[in-house]
UniProtKB/TrEMBL annotation:
Gene3D superfamilies: 3.40.50.360, Nucleotide-binding domain of ferredoxin-NADP reductase (FNR) module, Translation factors. Its EC number is 1.6.2.4. The lineage of its organism: Bacteria, Pseudomonadati, Pseudomonadota, Betaproteobacteria, Burkholderiales. CDD domains: SiR_like2. Pfam families: FAD_binding_6, Flavodoxin_1, NAD_binding_1, PepSY_TM. Residues 335-468 form the Flavodoxin-like domain. It comes from Pelomonas caseinilytica. This is NADPH--hemoprotein reductase. Keywords: Flavoprotein, FMN, Membrane, Transmembrane, Transmembrane helix.
Length: 732
C-alpha cells in the first residue's frame, strides 16, 4: 500500500474523528487566550518568598498558591468549609476575582480527551492522535512528491480548487498538526498509564520546632532563591499541624520546607518523563502563551478544511478512477496499453484508445504502467503517461521507469504518448524519459513520442490519425471528456477579417448571462487568458478558445479563425447576432497576469493576440505593457488592430511592435521584431518583466529559442523565467 492510499483511507475514516478532536481542540484553545486576559503576571525577578508573604497577608486561610502557565497567580483557600479559588495580583497580593478552570462546558474537554466514552474513549483519542501522526507523515511525503522536492515546496500550487486548498493549507499548518499529534500521544501515554511520570515515594520529612519565633515566609532561604516564573505550585502547611511542611513544585522538581526555619528539608529533581510531559502539555494546550493557543486553535479548525477538501479530491478522483471496460486478459491481448496517471484523466484517454482499437477487431488489455510487460501475443504496446510534481512520474508509477530500464528489449513496438502542460518547465518530462529509455534499450516504436498539452482532445484525435496511418487501419479517436456544466451564450456582435491564406476570421462577442451561471455566482468569474470550452452541435468534444475579455468587461470575446473542415470554427463563423452557443469556462490560472507594477512583455501571433488584447483592455492601472504582434498582412489579419491603436492612445498599451511576414518591408516574424529590439527586451526582463506568449506551437517554440539567445548574456533563459513563474505560454 502506497503513501497515497494510506493517506486517503486514513483521512476518510479516522479523519472524521480527527475533525472532532480538531474542532474541540480549537474550542479549548479559547481558555488560555481567555485566561491570559484575566489577571496580570508577576513582575520579572519577583521571588516566591515575597509572593508567599504578600498572598498570606491578604488571604488569611490560603492553602495553595499556583502559577498558571499563562503567568496568572491563583490562590486556593477555604471560606468555612467551602473551597475557593481566586486570582490575585502578584504585585500586592490583592484578590482580583474568582478563578474558573474553564469557560467551556465540561463535555467539550471530555469529548476532546475521551470522545465522551470514558477510559475506552481515551484509547480511541490516542489512536486518533496516532492516525493524525501517520496522516501528517504521509502528507509530507505526498506534498514533497507533488511539489517536486524541498526546493520547490513553496512554489505555486496547481490543480483543482480542492487540491489547491488542501495543499496550501497543508503547507501552512502541517508542522503544527504534526506537533499536536506527537504531544497528544505523549500526554495519552501517561494518562493511559503506559509511562510513569514519577514512581518515587515522597520523602518522610517533618518540620521541627526550634523553640524560637517562626521565620516569616518572605525570609525563607529556600523560597528566596526561586523566581515566581519557575513556580508551579506552593502548598502551605496546615494551620493545625506544627510538623507539617511547605511544599513547592517548580519546573525543575519539588521540595519540602520546614515551616519554622524556612530551610529546605528535601528536594527531588523532576524526572525526564515529567519534563517531557510538561513540555508536551505546554505545546499541546498553548496554555503558556496565548498567541500559540491561537495558532493551535486555527490549526485545529483547519482539520475540518482538510477533511472537506480531501473528501472532494477523493470524490473527484473516484469519478476518474480507472474502470476500463471490455479489458481482454493480458495473455490473450494483441494490443497492450499501459497508463501512468495522477489525476485520472489519462485513464479516460486510454479507454478511448482501448475502445477504438477493440472496435477495429483487436483484443486490447489496458493496465497501469507499473505492470508494464510484453507477451508473446502482443503486437503493439502503447504507454500513455502523464507528468507530475515538476517533471516526475505519477506516484503509482514511481518505479516504472527503473523497471523498464532493467528489462531486456523486446521486438514488439512500444509507442509513448505523453500528457502534460506547457506551463511547466519540464513539459511531459516523464514521457520524454520513458521514450529515451525505451529507445536506448533498443525497443522499436510505431510512432515517435507525441505530447498532449492540457488534455487536448483535438491533439489526441490528430495523433489518432497518425496512428491509423501507421497501423494501416481505420481508427478514429474521439475522446469525449466529462464536461462541466454548460451555458448558452448569445452572440451580440462580430467583427470579420478576411484572414491570411484564405481563412477568414472573426472576433466574436457574446453576452454573459448574469443570472444562471454568471457574475452573481462567484464560481463563474473568468479573466482574459482563461479558456472557453465550446461544444459544437453534433459533437461532445469541446474546442477551447482563449478569452479576450474578463467577466468584469461584462461580455465574453474570442477570436476564431476558420480551420478547413473544422466543425467548431465553421459553426462559430456561421453565427449571426442572436444565435447561441453551448459553452463553459475552463480557468487557466498559470497564464493569468498577477497584479502589480512590473512591466509586461506580450508576444502574440495571429488569433493568439486575443488573450493579450484582453490583458491590455483591463490595464486600467496603466502598468507598462509592451506588445509584439505577428501577422501576415495588416489588411487581412491584424486582429484587434483598431482597439490596439486606441489603447496605445490612452496608455493602456505602452508600445506596439508589429511584424507582418507576407508584405514587403513588413518586418518578418514576431521573433525578428524581438531580435531587432534585443536591448529593449533585455532591459524589460532586467526590470522583472512578466512574459506572456500566445499563438501557434511553432511560433511559441521559435519565440522561446529567440529569447533564450537574447537572454543568454544575462545568464537567463526561458526555462529559468518559467521556474520563477514569469513566463507562460498559451499555445494551440
Ligand atoms: C501538481 C501538478 C504538477 C504537474 N506537473 C507537470 C509537469 O511537471 N510537467 C508537465 O508537462 N505537466 C505537469 N502537470 C500537468 C499534468 O501532467 C496534466 O494535466 C496531465 O494531463 C494530467 O493527467 P492525469 O489527470 O492523468 O494525472 C502537472 C499537473 C499538476 C496538477
Amino acid at each position: 500500500m502506497g503513501w497515497k492510499s494510506i493517506h486517503r483511507w486514513l483521512g476518510l475514516t479516522v479523519g472524521t474523528l480527527a475533525v472532532v478532536l480538531g474542532i474541540t481542540g480549537a474550542l479549548l484553545a479559547v481558555d488560555p487566550v481567555d485566561q491570559a486576559w484575566q489577571a496580570p503576571s508577576a513582575e520579572p525577578g519577583l521571588t516566591v518568598a515575597v509572593l508567599a508573604e504578600r498572598v498570606t497577608n491578604t488571604v488569611a486561610d490560603a492553602a495553595e498558591i499556583r502559577r498558571l502557565p499563562s503567568g496568572a497567580i491563583v490562590v486556593y483557600s477555604f471560606a468555612g468549609e467551602q473551597p475557593r479559588a481566586s486570582y490575585v495580583d502578584p504585585a500586592d497580593g490583592r484578590v482580583l476575582g474568582t478563578w474558573q478552570a474553564s469557560t467551556l462546558p465540561r463535555w467539550v474537554k471530555n469529548l476532546h480527551r475521551s470522545l465522551l466514552l470514558g477510559d475506552a474513549g481515551r484509547w480511541g483519542a490516542a489512536g486518533t492522535a496516532l492516525a493524525m501522526g501517520v496522516l501528517c507523515a504521509s502528507a509530507l511525503v505526498l506534498l514533497l512528491r507533488r511539489m517536486g522536492g524541498w526546493r520547490r515546496l513553496t512554489g505555486r500550487v496547481r490543480g483543482t480548487l480542492a487540491q489547491r486548498i488542501h495543499v496550501v493549507a497543508g503547507r501552512v499548518v502541517l508542522a503544527v498538526l504534526c506537533l499536536t499529534s506527537i504531544t497528544g500521544l505523549t500526554m495519552s501515554a501517561s494518562t493511559l498509564g503506559l509511562v510513569e511520570l514519577d514512581g518515587r515515594a515522597e520523602p518522610e520529612v517533618l518540620s521541627v520546632a526550634t523553640g524560637q519565633a517562626d521565620v516569616p515566609a518572605s525570609q525563607f532561604a529556600a523560597l528566596q532563591g526561586i523566581a515566581v516564573a519557575d513556580l508551579r505550585k506552593l502548598t502551605l502547611p496546615s494551620a493545625t499541624d506544627p510538623e507539617d511542611t511547605w511544599k513547592i513544585t517548580t519546573a525543575q522538581g519539588q521540595g519540602w520546607i520546614d515551616r519554622h526555619s524556612g530551610r529546605m528539608l528535601a528536594w527531588q529533581d523532576a524526572t525526564w518523563a515529567q519534563r517531557i510531559h510538561g513540555w508536551a502539555v505546554v505545546l499541546h494546550t498553548g496554555n503558556a502563551a496565548w498567541p500559540w493557543a491561537v495558532v493551535l486553535g486555527l490549526a485545529g479548525a483547519s482539520v475540518l478544511l482538510f477533511w472537506l477538501s480531501g473528501f472532494v479530491i477523493w470524490w473527484q478522483a473516484r469519478g476518474q478512477a480507472p474502470r476500463i471496460t471490455g479489458n481482454a486478459p493480458l495473455a490473450q491481448a494483441d494490443v497492450l496499453v499501459f497508463v501512468a496517471s495522477e489525476g485520472g484523466s489519462t485513464w479516460g484517454f486510454a479507454q478511448t484508445l482501448h475502445d477504438a482499437l477493440a472496435q477495429g477487431g483487436h483484443r486490447v488489455h489496458t493496465g497501469a504502467l507499473e505492470d508494464f510487460r510484453t507477451t508473446p501475443a502482443a503486437r503493439q504496446v502503447f504507454v500513455l503517461a502523464a507528468t507530475y510534481g515538476d517533471g516526475q512520474a505519477p506516484a503509482h508509477a514511481g518505479h516504472a521507469l527503473d523497471r523498464i530500464a532493467r528489462l531486456a528489449a523486446g521486438t514488439v513496438p512500444v509507442t509513448v504518448l505523453g500528457f502534460g502542460d506547457r506551463q511547466f518547465p519540464a513539459f511531459c518530462a516523464f514521457a520524454v524519459a520513458l521514450e529515451q529509455t525505451l529507445r536506448q534499450r533498443g525497443w522499436p516504436a510505431l510512432l515517435p513520442l507525441e505530447c498532449i498539452h492540457q488534455q487536448s482532445s483535438q491533439q489526441f484525435a490528430l495523433w489518432g490519425r497518425a496512428l491509423s496511418q501507421a497501423l494501416g487501419e481505420p481508427l478514429v479517436l474521439e475522446h469525449v471528456p466529462r464536461l462541466p456544466h454548460t451555458v448558452a451564450l448569445r452572440l451580440t456582435a462580430r467583427k470579420d477579417y478576411p484572414g491570411a491564406t484564405g481563412q477568414p476570421a472573426s472576433v466574436l462577442r457574446f453576452a454573459w448571462p448574469a443570472g444562471s451561471l454568471g457574475r452573481r455566482h462567484g464560481l463563474a468569474r473568468f479573466a482574459a487568458g482563461d479558456l472557453v470550452g465550446i461544444v459544437p452541435p453534433g459533437s461532445g468534444v469541446p474546442r477551447y478558445y482563449s478569452l479576450a475579455s474578463g467577466s468584469q468587461d461584462g461580455f465574453l470575446e474570442i477570436c476564431v479563425r476558420l480551420m478547413p473542415g473544422g466543425l467548431c470554427s465553421t459553426h462559430l463563423l456561421g453565427l449571426k447576432a442572436g444565435d447561441t452557443i453551448t459553452a463553459f469556462i475552463r480557468p487557466n490560472p498559470a497564464f493569468a497576469l498577477p497584479r502589480g507594477r512590473r512591466p509586461v512583455l506580450l508576444i502574440g501571433a495571429g488569433s493568439g493576440v486575443a488573450p493579450l488584447a484582453g490583458f491590455i483592455r483591463r490595464n486600467e492601472a496603466r502598468r507598462p505593457m509592451h506588445l509584439y504582434f505577428g501577422g501576415r498582412d495588416p489588411a487581412r489579419d491584424f486582429y484587434f488592430g483598431d482597439d490596439l491603436q486606441q489603447w496605445l492612445g490612452d496608455d493602456r498599451l505602452a508600445s506596439l511592435q508589429t511584424a507582418f511576414s507576407r508584405i514587403a518591408d513588413g518586418g518578418g516574424y514576431v521573433q525578428d521584431a524581438l531580435r531587432r529590439d534585443a536591448e529593449r527586451v533585455r532591459g524589460l526582463v532586467a526590470q522583472g518583466a512578466l512574459v506572456r506568449v500566445c499563438g501557434s506551437r511553432t511560433m511559441a517554440h521559435d519565440v522561446a529559442r529567440t529569447l533564450d539567445a537574447l537572454l543568454a548574456p544575462m545568464q537567463l533563459s526561458v526555462s529559468a523565467l518559467k521556474d520563477e513563474e514569469r513566463y507562460a505560454e498559451d499555445v494551440f
